[in-house]
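The data layer described in this paper is built around a simple, fixed record for each protein. We quote a single record here, exactly as it is kept in our systems:
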Amino acid sequence: MITITALMVVLAAVAFVGFPLLDVSEEEREARENADLNELLLERDSIFAAMSELDADHSIGTLSDGDHAQLKASYEEKALKVLRALDKLSYDASLGVEALHEDEIERQVEELRRGRVASAASPAKFCRRCGTALEPDDNYCSSCGSAREGM
């Protein structure tokens, strides 16, 4: 019985300490995505630079036609993989941004709906003399000083 209790306490302590390590915040996730994006962009640029250098070497005759074709095919395959990864990363990011925009729009619409309901429930009062909006607890107009009617 004591062993089971001790084991439960140890498991609870491990869970208490380990859970925050498993929780990935939104900022960390974005940082990781940005690092992935930067890495892919650097890889893309280096592949394109290597392909350009490969063509230059071939044009001056330091690289044979067979070697040029083989190396160019290899670089094109690598470039294709990197470009697909960039497209996927961009597509995933655009879906996230799109969802954020939709959530923001829904939130604003809900606020507007609540505002209309609140304004319909308590119609605004205005000074009959100058038209300034009156607060519910005002006895006199803050603009012209006339007494509030209907108190």
In short: The first strand starts at residue 125 and ends at 126. Strands lie at 125-126, 133-134. The helical segments are 2-22, 26-60, 65-121.
